[in-house]
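Exercise 7b. C-alpha coordinates:
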Protein backbone atom coordinates (compact mmCIF):
# COMPACT_ATOMS: atom_id res chain seq x y z
CA UNK A 1 0.00 0.00 0.00
CA UNK A 2 1.25 3.46 -0.85
CA UNK A 3 2.18 5.50 2.23
CA UNK A 4 1.59 9.17 3.05
CA UNK A 5 5.25 10.01 2.44
CA UNK A 6 5.10 8.57 -1.09
CA UNK A 7 1.87 10.45 -1.81
CA UNK A 8 3.34 13.76 -0.64
CA UNK A 9 6.52 13.10 -2.64
CA UNK A 10 4.46 12.39 -5.75
CA UNK A 11 2.50 15.63 -5.33
CA UNK A 12 5.58 17.77 -4.66
CA UNK A 13 7.43 16.28 -7.64
CA UNK A 14 4.69 17.47 -10.00
CA UNK A 15 3.71 20.69 -8.31
CA UNK A 16 5.11 24.17 -8.15
CA UNK A 17 5.91 23.95 -4.44
CA UNK A 18 8.77 21.44 -4.79
CA UNK A 19 11.46 21.91 -2.14
CA UNK A 20 15.04 22.24 -3.31
CA UNK A 21 18.40 21.98 -1.58
CA UNK A 22 18.38 25.77 -1.35
CA UNK A 23 15.14 25.64 0.63
CA UNK A 24 16.61 23.10 3.03
CA UNK A 25 19.76 25.19 3.41
CA UNK A 26 17.72 28.29 4.24
CA UNK A 27 15.69 26.35 6.80
CA UNK A 28 18.84 24.98 8.42
CA UNK A 29 20.48 28.40 8.40
CA UNK A 30 17.38 29.94 10.00
CA UNK A 31 17.43 27.32 12.76
CA UNK A 32 21.13 27.98 13.36
CA UNK A 33 20.59 31.74 13.55
CA UNK A 34 17.74 31.19 16.00
CA UNK A 35 20.03 29.16 18.24
CA UNK A 36 22.75 31.80 18.02
CA UNK A 37 20.32 34.61 18.89
CA UNK A 38 18.69 32.68 21.74
CA UNK A 39 21.92 31.43 23.33
CA UNK A 40 22.93 34.76 24.98
CA UNK A 41 19.45 35.16 26.47
CA UNK A 42 19.57 31.63 27.86
CA UNK A 43 23.04 32.26 29.26
CA UNK A 44 21.90 35.43 31.00
CA UNK A 45 18.88 33.62 32.44
CA UNK A 46 21.06 30.83 33.81
CA UNK A 47 23.56 33.27 35.31
CA UNK A 48 20.67 35.15 36.95
CA UNK A 49 19.44 32.08 38.84
CA UNK A 50 19.51 33.03 42.55
CA UNK A 51 21.76 31.05 44.86
CA UNK A 52 19.62 31.59 47.96
CA UNK A 53 16.24 30.00 48.73
CA UNK A 54 13.31 32.42 49.14
CA UNK A 55 10.05 30.64 50.09
CA UNK A 56 7.91 33.58 48.94
CA UNK A 57 9.53 33.66 45.51
CA UNK A 58 9.41 29.85 45.23
CA UNK A 59 5.69 29.65 46.04
CA UNK A 60 4.77 32.45 43.66
CA UNK A 61 6.92 30.96 40.89
CA UNK A 62 5.42 27.50 41.31
CA UNK A 63 1.91 28.97 41.23
CA UNK A 64 2.63 30.86 38.00
CA UNK A 65 4.19 27.79 36.37
CA UNK A 66 1.17 25.65 37.30
CA UNK A 67 -1.20 28.27 35.90
CA UNK A 68 0.87 28.53 32.73
CA UNK A 69 0.74 24.77 32.21
CA UNK A 70 -3.00 24.75 32.88
CA UNK A 71 -3.55 27.51 30.34
CA UNK A 72 -1.45 25.72 27.72
CA UNK A 73 -3.37 22.47 28.25
CA UNK A 74 -6.70 24.30 28.05
CA UNK A 75 -5.63 25.92 24.78
CA UNK A 76 -4.49 22.57 23.37
CA UNK A 77 -7.79 21.01 24.41
CA UNK A 78 -9.70 23.79 22.67
CA UNK A 79 -7.77 23.71 19.40
CA UNK A 80 -7.29 19.98 19.02
CA UNK A 81 -4.34 19.72 19.35
CA UNK A 82 -3.73 17.42 16.35
CA UNK A 83 -4.63 19.37 13.20
CA UNK A 84 -3.47 19.30 9.58
CA UNK A 85 -3.56 21.67 6.66
CA UNK A 86 -6.72 22.21 4.64
CA UNK A 87 -5.41 20.11 1.73
CA UNK A 88 -4.48 17.18 3.97
CA UNK A 89 -7.79 17.44 5.80
CA UNK A 90 -9.72 17.31 2.53
CA UNK A 91 -7.73 14.48 1.00
CA UNK A 92 -5.21 12.50 3.08
CA UNK A 93 -7.21 12.26 6.31
CA UNK A 94 -10.19 10.75 4.49
CA UNK A 95 -8.03 8.43 2.35
CA UNK A 96 -7.25 4.79 3.23
CA UNK A 97 -3.67 5.77 4.14
CA UNK A 98 -2.41 4.87 7.60
CA UNK A 99 -3.56 7.53 10.06
CA UNK A 100 -0.24 7.56 11.89
CA UNK A 101 1.75 8.33 8.73
CA UNK A 102 -0.68 11.08 7.73
CA UNK A 103 -0.32 12.79 11.11
CA UNK A 104 3.42 12.18 11.55
CA UNK A 105 4.43 15.71 10.55
CA UNK A 106 1.93 17.31 12.92
CA UNK A 107 3.00 15.07 15.78
CA UNK A 108 6.66 15.96 15.16
CA UNK A 109 5.84 19.68 15.29
CA UNK A 110 3.89 19.20 18.53
CA UNK A 111 6.80 17.29 20.05
CA UNK A 112 9.35 19.96 19.11
CA UNK A 113 7.18 22.80 20.38
CA UNK A 114 6.49 20.92 23.63
CA UNK A 115 10.19 20.19 24.14
CA UNK A 116 11.22 23.83 23.61
CA UNK A 117 8.43 25.07 25.87
CA UNK A 118 9.39 22.47 28.46
CA UNK A 119 12.99 23.67 28.50
CA UNK A 120 11.74 27.21 29.13
CA UNK A 121 9.46 25.93 31.91
CA UNK A 122 12.38 24.10 33.50
CA UNK A 123 14.52 27.23 33.44
CA UNK A 124 11.67 29.21 35.00
CA UNK A 125 11.31 26.51 37.67
CA UNK A 126 14.98 26.74 38.57
CA UNK A 127 14.80 30.55 38.67
CA UNK A 128 11.86 30.37 41.08
CA UNK A 129 13.31 27.78 43.44
CA UNK A 130 16.94 28.86 43.27
CA UNK A 131 20.11 26.77 43.14
CA UNK A 132 22.03 26.79 46.45
CA UNK A 133 24.56 24.28 45.08
CA UNK A 134 25.35 22.07 42.08
CA UNK A 135 23.90 24.46 39.52
CA UNK A 136 24.64 22.26 36.44
CA UNK A 137 22.94 19.20 37.96
CA UNK A 138 19.92 21.19 39.11
CA UNK A 139 19.67 22.87 35.72
CA UNK A 140 19.62 19.52 33.89
CA UNK A 141 17.07 18.12 36.34
CA UNK A 142 14.86 21.19 36.01
CA UNK A 143 14.97 21.06 32.20
CA UNK A 144 14.09 17.35 32.28
CA UNK A 145 11.22 18.09 34.66
CA UNK A 146 9.83 20.88 32.51
CA UNK A 147 10.18 18.89 29.28
CA UNK A 148 8.52 15.86 30.87
CA UNK A 149 5.60 17.98 32.06
CA UNK A 150 4.98 19.60 28.70
CA UNK A 151 5.43 16.39 26.67
CA UNK A 152 3.21 14.47 29.09
CA UNK A 153 0.58 17.20 28.98
CA UNK A 154 0.62 17.27 25.19
CA UNK A 155 0.32 13.48 25.08
CA UNK A 156 -2.68 13.67 27.43
CA UNK A 157 -4.29 16.30 25.20
CA UNK A 158 -3.79 14.08 22.13
CA UNK A 159 -5.28 11.11 23.99
CA UNK A 160 -8.26 13.28 24.98
CA UNK A 161 -8.77 14.15 21.32
CA UNK A 162 -8.59 10.48 20.29
CA UNK A 163 -10.68 9.01 23.10
CA UNK A 164 -13.58 10.62 25.06
CA UNK A 165 -12.68 8.95 28.40
CA UNK A 166 -9.32 10.73 28.32
CA UNK A 167 -11.18 14.04 28.04
CA UNK A 168 -12.35 13.67 31.62
CA UNK A 169 -8.82 12.82 32.73
CA UNK A 170 -7.51 15.93 31.03
CA UNK A 171 -10.08 18.02 32.89
CA UNK A 172 -8.91 16.36 36.12
CA UNK A 173 -5.32 17.32 35.30
CA UNK A 174 -6.42 20.93 34.78
CA UNK A 175 -8.19 20.92 38.16
CA UNK A 176 -5.09 19.48 39.86
CA UNK A 177 -2.89 22.16 38.33
CA UNK A 178 -5.21 24.95 39.46
CA UNK A 179 -5.42 23.49 42.97
CA UNK A 180 -1.63 23.17 43.08
CA UNK A 181 -1.28 26.81 42.00
CA UNK A 182 -3.63 27.95 44.76
CA UNK A 183 -1.82 25.81 47.34
CA UNK A 184 1.59 27.17 46.31
CA UNK A 185 0.32 30.74 46.45
CA UNK A 186 -1.16 30.21 49.92
CA UNK A 187 2.00 28.53 51.21
CA UNK A 188 4.11 31.43 49.98
CA UNK A 189 2.25 33.74 52.36
CA UNK A 190 3.55 31.97 55.47
CA UNK A 191 1.79 28.74 56.49
CA UNK A 192 3.81 26.44 54.24
CA UNK A 193 7.06 28.29 53.74
CA UNK A 194 8.95 25.46 55.45
CA UNK A 195 7.65 23.01 52.84
CA UNK A 196 8.68 25.34 50.03
CA UNK A 197 12.13 25.80 51.55
CA UNK A 198 12.51 22.02 51.79
CA UNK A 199 11.56 21.58 48.11
CA UNK A 200 13.91 24.31 46.94
CA UNK A 201 16.86 23.17 49.08
CA UNK A 202 16.41 19.45 48.38
CA UNK A 203 19.67 17.69 47.45
CA UNK A 204 20.50 17.21 43.76
CA UNK A 205 19.83 13.47 44.12
CA UNK A 206 16.19 14.19 45.00
CA UNK A 207 15.89 16.49 41.98
CA UNK A 208 17.37 13.77 39.77
CA UNK A 209 14.92 11.21 41.16
CA UNK A 210 11.96 13.49 40.53
CA UNK A 211 13.22 14.17 37.00
CA UNK A 212 13.59 10.44 36.26
CA UNK A 213 10.11 9.69 37.60
CA UNK A 214 8.59 12.49 35.51
CA UNK A 215 10.44 11.27 32.43
CA UNK A 216 9.11 7.73 32.91
CA UNK A 217 5.53 8.97 33.26
CA UNK A 218 5.92 11.16 30.16
CA UNK A 219 7.36 8.22 28.21
CA UNK A 220 4.41 6.01 29.20
CA UNK A 221 1.93 8.68 28.14
CA UNK A 222 3.82 9.20 24.88
CA UNK A 223 3.63 5.49 24.17
CA UNK A 224 -0.10 5.46 24.87
CA UNK A 225 -0.78 8.39 22.59
CA UNK A 226 1.44 6.95 19.80
CA UNK A 227 -0.66 3.79 19.91
CA UNK A 228 -3.92 5.77 20.03
CA UNK A 229 -3.02 7.90 16.99
CA UNK A 230 -3.40 4.84 14.78
CA UNK A 231 -7.13 4.75 15.55
CA UNK A 232 -7.81 8.47 15.94
CA UNK A 233 -11.24 9.33 14.47
CA UNK A 234 -11.12 11.34 11.27
CA UNK A 235 -13.91 13.60 12.56
CA UNK A 236 -11.76 14.72 15.50
CA UNK A 237 -8.88 15.63 13.18
CA UNK A 238 -11.17 17.43 10.73
CA UNK A 239 -12.86 19.47 13.48
CA UNK A 240 -9.51 20.45 14.98
CA UNK A 241 -8.16 21.37 11.55
CA UNK A 242 -11.15 23.61 10.89
CA UNK A 243 -10.79 25.39 14.23
CA UNK A 244 -7.05 25.82 13.83
CA UNK A 245 -7.42 27.10 10.26
CA UNK A 246 -10.07 29.63 11.26
CA UNK A 247 -7.93 30.82 14.16
CA UNK A 248 -4.83 31.14 11.95
CA UNK A 249 -6.71 33.12 9.31
CA UNK A 250 -8.21 35.39 11.94
CA UNK A 251 -4.81 35.91 13.56
CA UNK A 252 -3.40 37.18 10.28
CA UNK A 253 -6.33 39.22 8.98
CA UNK A 254 -8.35 40.26 12.03
CA UNK A 255 -7.17 38.94 15.43
CA UNK A 256 -10.29 40.45 16.99
CA UNK A 257 -12.32 37.77 15.22
CA UNK A 258 -10.81 35.22 17.60
CA UNK A 259 -13.16 36.59 20.24
CA UNK A 260 -16.18 35.87 18.06
CA UNK A 261 -14.88 32.36 17.37
CA UNK A 262 -14.56 31.68 21.10
CA UNK A 263 -18.00 33.16 21.83
CA UNK A 264 -19.68 31.12 19.10
CA UNK A 265 -17.97 27.94 20.27
CA UNK A 266 -19.23 28.57 23.81
CA UNK A 267 -22.86 29.35 23.04
CA UNK A 268 -23.42 27.04 20.07
CA UNK A 269 -24.24 23.92 22.12
CA UNK A 270 -26.16 25.63 24.93
CA UNK A 271 -29.90 26.11 25.33
CA UNK A 272 -30.71 29.35 27.14
CA UNK A 273 -33.85 30.10 29.06
CA UNK A 274 -35.81 33.09 27.83
CA UNK A 275 -36.16 36.04 30.18
CA UNK A 276 -38.58 38.95 30.06
CA UNK A 277 -37.19 42.33 29.04
CA UNK A 278 -36.75 44.65 32.04
CA UNK A 279 -39.79 46.96 31.94
CA UNK A 280 -37.98 50.02 33.28
CA UNK A 281 -35.17 50.01 30.73
CA UNK A 282 -35.57 52.13 27.64
CA UNK A 283 -33.40 53.09 24.70
CA UNK A 284 -29.64 52.74 25.07
CA UNK A 285 -29.83 51.25 28.58
CA UNK A 286 -32.07 48.44 27.32
CA UNK A 287 -29.65 47.61 24.51
CA UNK A 288 -26.64 47.69 26.84
CA UNK A 289 -28.47 45.45 29.32
CA UNK A 290 -27.75 42.49 27.03
CA UNK A 291 -24.05 42.74 27.90
CA UNK A 292 -24.90 42.35 31.57
CA UNK A 293 -27.10 39.32 30.85
CA UNK A 294 -24.39 37.72 28.72
CA UNK A 295 -21.83 38.11 31.49
CA UNK A 296 -24.25 36.89 34.19
CA UNK A 297 -24.81 33.68 32.20
CA UNK A 298 -21.12 32.83 32.62
CA UNK A 299 -20.41 32.76 36.39
CA UNK A 300 -17.24 30.75 35.76
CA UNK A 301 -15.73 33.66 33.87
CA UNK A 302 -16.55 36.01 36.75
CA UNK A 303 -14.88 33.64 39.21
CA UNK A 304 -11.82 33.42 36.96
CA UNK A 305 -11.67 37.21 36.71
CA UNK A 306 -11.79 37.56 40.48
CA UNK A 307 -9.09 34.92 40.98
CA UNK A 308 -6.84 36.60 38.40
CA UNK A 309 -6.53 39.61 40.72
CA UNK A 310 -3.78 37.68 42.52
CA UNK A 311 -1.56 37.51 39.42
CA UNK A 312 0.19 40.89 39.96
CA UNK A 313 1.17 39.88 43.49
CA UNK A 314 2.49 36.54 42.25
CA UNK A 315 4.43 38.26 39.46
CA UNK A 316 6.04 40.64 41.95
CA UNK A 317 6.92 37.84 44.40
CA UNK A 318 8.25 35.55 41.67
CA UNK A 319 11.02 38.00 40.81
CA UNK A 320 9.31 40.35 38.39
CA UNK A 321 9.50 43.26 40.81
CA UNK A 322 7.57 46.46 40.34
CA UNK A 323 8.00 46.47 36.56
CA UNK A 324 6.58 42.96 36.20
CA UNK A 325 3.68 43.76 38.51
CA UNK A 326 2.85 46.91 36.51
CA UNK A 327 2.86 45.01 33.22
CA UNK A 328 0.51 42.37 34.63
CA UNK A 329 -1.68 45.09 36.16
CA UNK A 330 -2.02 46.99 32.89
CA UNK A 331 -2.65 43.93 30.71
CA UNK A 332 -5.00 42.33 33.22
CA UNK A 333 -7.08 45.44 33.88
CA UNK A 334 -7.55 46.12 30.16
CA UNK A 335 -8.39 42.47 29.47
CA UNK A 336 -10.93 42.33 32.29
CA UNK A 337 -12.58 45.55 31.14
CA UNK A 338 -12.79 44.08 27.62
CA UNK A 339 -14.83 41.15 28.98
CA UNK A 340 -17.89 43.42 29.00
CA UNK A 341 -17.59 44.87 25.50
CA UNK A 342 -19.18 42.15 23.35
CA UNK A 343 -22.02 44.49 22.39
CA UNK A 344 -19.61 47.20 21.31
CA UNK A 345 -17.85 44.70 19.06
CA UNK A 346 -21.18 43.82 17.45
CA UNK A 347 -22.12 47.46 16.98
CA UNK A 348 -18.79 48.14 15.26
CA UNK A 349 -19.64 45.50 12.66
CA UNK A 350 -23.38 46.11 12.32
CA UNK A 351 -25.30 48.83 14.16
CA UNK A 352 -28.68 47.75 12.75
CA UNK A 353 -30.04 46.46 16.08
CA UNK A 354 -29.24 49.72 17.86
CA UNK A 355 -30.98 51.70 15.12
CA UNK A 356 -34.06 49.46 15.23
CA UNK A 357 -34.34 50.00 18.99
CA UNK A 358 -33.97 53.75 18.64
CA UNK A 359 -30.70 54.09 20.57
CA UNK A 360 -28.54 57.08 19.72
CA UNK A 361 -24.86 56.31 19.05
CA UNK A 362 -23.49 58.56 21.80
CA UNK A 363 -26.01 57.40 24.39
CA UNK A 364 -25.46 53.78 23.43
CA UNK A 365 -21.68 54.04 23.71
CA UNK A 366 -22.02 55.72 27.11
CA UNK A 367 -24.39 52.97 28.27
CA UNK A 368 -22.04 50.26 27.07
CA UNK A 369 -19.17 51.91 28.98
CA UNK A 370 -20.78 51.24 32.38
CA UNK A 371 -20.03 47.51 32.51
CA UNK A 372 -16.33 47.71 31.48
CA UNK A 373 -15.90 50.59 33.92
CA UNK A 374 -17.24 48.46 36.75
CA UNK A 375 -15.26 45.37 35.75
CA UNK A 376 -11.93 47.08 35.14
CA UNK A 377 -12.16 49.31 38.21
CA UNK A 378 -13.15 46.46 40.54
CA UNK A 379 -10.41 44.15 39.31
CA UNK A 380 -7.75 46.85 39.48
CA UNK A 381 -8.84 47.77 43.01
CA UNK A 382 -8.57 44.16 44.16
CA UNK A 383 -5.18 43.71 42.51
CA UNK A 384 -3.81 46.95 43.98
CA UNK A 385 -5.14 46.01 47.40
CA UNK A 386 -3.15 42.79 47.19
CA UNK A 387 -0.04 44.74 46.28
CA UNK A 388 -0.67 47.15 49.16
CA UNK A 389 -0.49 44.20 51.54
CA UNK A 390 3.15 43.67 50.54
CA UNK A 391 4.11 47.30 49.90
CA UNK A 392 3.50 50.77 51.24
CA UNK A 393 0.99 53.34 50.13
CA UNK A 394 -2.78 53.23 49.50
CA UNK A 395 -2.49 52.36 45.81
CA UNK A 396 -5.93 50.72 45.83
CA UNK A 397 -7.46 54.21 45.69
CA UNK A 398 -6.25 54.44 42.10
CA UNK A 399 -8.44 51.51 41.02
CA UNK A 400 -11.82 53.30 40.89
CA UNK A 401 -10.20 56.45 39.50
CA UNK A 402 -8.57 54.56 36.58
CA UNK A 403 -11.80 52.72 35.72
CA UNK A 404 -13.14 55.28 33.18
CA UNK A 405 -9.85 55.30 31.26
CA UNK A 406 -9.83 51.49 31.23
CA UNK A 407 -13.37 51.46 29.87
CA UNK A 408 -12.41 53.86 27.08
CA UNK A 409 -9.43 51.69 26.17
CA UNK A 410 -11.55 48.52 26.24
CA UNK A 411 -14.20 50.07 23.99
CA UNK A 412 -11.52 51.14 21.54
CA UNK A 413 -10.11 47.60 21.61
CA UNK A 414 -13.55 46.18 20.84
CA UNK A 415 -14.24 48.62 17.98
CA UNK A 416 -10.94 48.18 16.16
CA UNK A 417 -11.07 47.54 12.46
CA UNK A 418 -9.16 44.63 10.86
CA UNK A 419 -5.43 45.03 10.32
CA UNK A 420 -4.59 47.25 7.39
CA UNK A 421 -1.76 45.35 5.71
CA UNK A 422 -1.43 47.91 2.91
CA UNK A 423 0.15 50.48 5.23
CA UNK A 424 3.90 51.10 4.79
CA UNK A 425 6.76 49.57 6.73
CA UNK A 426 8.72 52.04 8.86
CA UNK A 427 12.27 51.78 10.11
CA UNK A 428 12.86 51.75 13.86
CA UNK A 429 15.80 51.06 16.19
CA UNK A 430 14.49 47.48 16.43
CA UNK A 431 14.33 46.99 12.67
CA UNK A 432 11.58 47.26 10.08
CA UNK A 433 8.11 47.46 11.66
CA UNK A 434 4.91 47.03 9.61
CA UNK A 435 2.76 50.02 10.45
CA UNK A 436 -0.62 48.30 10.06
CA UNK A 437 -0.16 45.57 12.70
CA UNK A 438 1.66 48.01 14.99
CA UNK A 439 -1.21 50.52 14.96
CA UNK A 440 -3.71 47.71 15.47
CA UNK A 441 -1.76 46.42 18.47
CA UNK A 442 -1.55 49.77 20.28
CA UNK A 443 -5.18 50.77 19.61
CA UNK A 444 -6.96 50.83 22.94
CA UNK A 445 -3.82 50.71 25.04
CA UNK A 446 -2.95 54.24 23.91
CA UNK A 447 -6.16 55.72 25.32
CA UNK A 448 -5.88 53.70 28.53
CA UNK A 449 -2.31 54.87 29.12
CA UNK A 450 -3.25 58.48 28.34
CA UNK A 451 -6.07 58.36 30.86
CA UNK A 452 -3.88 56.72 33.52
CA UNK A 453 -0.84 59.02 33.33
CA UNK A 454 -1.36 60.44 36.86
CA UNK A 455 -1.62 56.89 38.20
CA UNK A 456 1.66 55.99 36.52
CA UNK A 457 3.23 59.04 38.14
CA UNK A 458 1.86 57.85 41.48
CA UNK A 459 3.51 54.46 41.03
CA UNK A 460 6.80 56.19 40.33
CA UNK A 461 6.72 58.76 43.13
CA UNK A 462 4.04 57.71 45.59
CA UNK A 463 0.34 58.38 46.08
CA UNK A 464 -0.65 61.94 46.93
CA UNK A 465 -3.80 64.00 47.01
CA UNK A 466 -3.05 66.07 43.89
CA UNK A 467 -2.27 62.95 41.87
CA UNK A 468 -5.52 61.31 42.97
CA UNK A 469 -7.47 64.40 41.96
CA UNK A 470 -5.64 64.59 38.64
CA UNK A 471 -6.36 60.91 37.96
CA UNK A 472 -10.08 61.33 38.65
CA UNK A 473 -10.30 64.26 36.23
CA UNK A 474 -8.07 62.67 33.57
CA UNK A 475 -9.89 59.32 33.54
CA UNK A 476 -13.35 60.88 33.34
CA UNK A 477 -12.24 63.32 30.65
CA UNK A 478 -10.79 60.57 28.44
CA UNK A 479 -13.98 58.49 28.65
CA UNK A 480 -16.21 61.50 28.01
CA UNK A 481 -14.12 62.55 25.00
CA UNK A 482 -14.19 59.06 23.54
CA UNK A 483 -17.95 58.67 23.96
CA UNK A 484 -18.48 62.08 22.36
CA UNK A 485 -17.08 60.76 19.06
CA UNK A 486 -18.99 57.47 18.66
CA UNK A 487 -17.87 56.84 15.09
CA UNK A 488 -14.21 56.86 15.95
CA UNK A 489 -12.51 53.47 16.11
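Sequence design result:
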Amino acid sequence: MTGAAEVRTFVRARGRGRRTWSDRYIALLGAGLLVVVASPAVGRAVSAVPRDVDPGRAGAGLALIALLLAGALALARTLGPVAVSAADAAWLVLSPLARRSVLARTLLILAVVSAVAGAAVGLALLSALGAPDALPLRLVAAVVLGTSWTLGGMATAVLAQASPPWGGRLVAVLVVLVVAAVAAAVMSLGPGQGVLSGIASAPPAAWAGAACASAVVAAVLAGRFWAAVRHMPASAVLDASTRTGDAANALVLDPGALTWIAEDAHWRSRVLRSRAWPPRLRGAAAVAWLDWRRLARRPGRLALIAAAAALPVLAARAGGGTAGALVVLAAGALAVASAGTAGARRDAGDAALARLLGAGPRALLAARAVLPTLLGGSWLTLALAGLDASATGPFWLLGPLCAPALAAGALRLARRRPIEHTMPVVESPFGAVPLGPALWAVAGADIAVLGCLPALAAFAGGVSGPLLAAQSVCGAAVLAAYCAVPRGG
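Instructor comment: The beta strands are 425-428, 431-434. The chain has a mean pLDDT of 83.
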